[in-house]
Structures are given as C-alpha cells and as structure tokens.
Structure prediction request, 281 residues.
Amino acid sequence: MTVDEYVQARPAPGLRPFVGWYSGYRQRGLPPGLHRGLPSPYLTLILTLDEPLTVSAHPDGRQPPGTYDTLLGGLHLAPALIAHDGAQSGVQIAVHPLGCRALFGLPAGELGGLDVDLPAVIGDRAASALRSAVQAHDRWPDRFAALDTTLLRLRGDNSKINPDVGYAYERLLATGGTVTVRDLAAEVGWSTRHLTTRFRAETGLGLKEAARVTRFDRARRRLRPGVKLADLAAATGYFDQAHLARDFHAFAGVAPTRWLADEIAFVQAGAGLTAEDERHD
Prediction:
C-alpha cells in the first residue's frame, strides 16, 4: 500500500517567537529518492517517527554521511541531500534562529553550517522526550499538540539576544531579504561591520548571506509549474532571471526547472503554509 502524507501546522502561540511551523511527513511504498534540504532563514529540527533519517551529503562537505533519529541543522548555504528507500516519516520543525537560545541553550551561530545529533545539544533525556512526544500518537494534530507541550517545557531564557540583532533579522524576514545592509545598519545606528559581526555570531550567517538566503527561500516557495521565472524574479526582489538562476545553482545545486521537477511532490504538498504566511498571524 502506498502512503504519502504531508501536513503542516503552526505551533502554539507561546512558541511562535521561536518556531515558525511544523511539517509532518509519512511515506511508504514510493520509489527510492533523494530530497534536497535547501538553505532557509530557519534552522531545521527533524524528529523521525520510524526509520532514521539518512543524510548522504551535508551542507558542510567535511561532515561524513550519517543516519539520525533526531537532527538539528544550523543555517547553511548549500543543500543537504536526504536519501530514502521509499519509506520515511517524521516531523520537521522550522526553528527561528533567535529562538535557538531559548529552546536549545546556545546561539544559532554555534550551529552555522552544521548538522548535529540533537542529544549532543540538549542531552539524551530532553531529545528522547521530544521524539517520544510525536511517536506516542497516530494522528498529526495529536502529534503537533504533544510537541507544543514538550517544547514549551523546554523553553528557556532568550534575553541574551541583542535587540538590534533581533530587529535586523525580523526586518530581513519582513522584506523578503530585499532590505540593504547599509539601510539596516543606519536603522539600528551601528556600522555595517559591527552589525554583521554581531549578527553572524548570533545566527551563523552574515547579513548579506542571510538576506540572499531569505530572498531565495521566498522565491523557491513561490515557484510552481507554469510560473515564469522572469516574473518570479521580479516579484521577489531579484535584478533579473539570471540572478535567480544563479542562486538556485548556488543553494540547490541545480537549475530552478530541475529542482521543481525533482521536488514537485513536496512543492505541491507544502503549498498551504509558507514563511510569509507564518508572519501574518
């Protein structure tokens, strides 16, 4: 029997400063495949339900391939390659970089470009509690509700984040990465160098890198069959179609049309909730 489920949901209100959304997936009986985990303005936390997650290539090529029951990935500039044999299941959590301290006790900058076992960050007991929360239920709403409860218990202090760094990141998200570094620095009253240094230490990316990733993420979430690349580029702040194609090659490793053909099932399934939707609660 073929199973192909993909469900998205927002977290509880008390978690929304720290978590963008949940994505639940369960597939059985499909052809073996390779999924690209693309750069995004959010960290990626994956809690598997059954079989482990198989990462055949990490964003940092120096990391060897591996399998994970729970994985936490920092902000990155290259795709992760996820292999499956026709069966995979779990919950993916989009973690706001400025929520990393509250949920995991460290700045997102310490995870920049890396994929790590979650127990190495929060300990075996806390990591097991998160995974067990989703494994204990058969329905997606119940899994998400249990995850809300467990993450709220994990939530800690977020006060060490400099408010100007927080402001800069929120402005990047709000503008889809189109605000300039110079304008951001002027708005907070810092030099571009100082703001970039503080921003990188907190998030793992420099301001220009984060702006570029945010713009790319906005574009790839709007890419659908029949959408003209020139129109998409203009609507998402790119100078032209060539610059959009350049970012796809850099961040996805393939052209936009190839990515869409390879990932069409995920694109169609994930059409209901985007980063922009999450910001308009």
Residues 38 and 211 are 15 Å apart (CA to CA). Residues 275-281 have pLDDT under 50 and may be disordered. The domain at 3-154 is CATH 2.60.120 (Jelly Rolls).
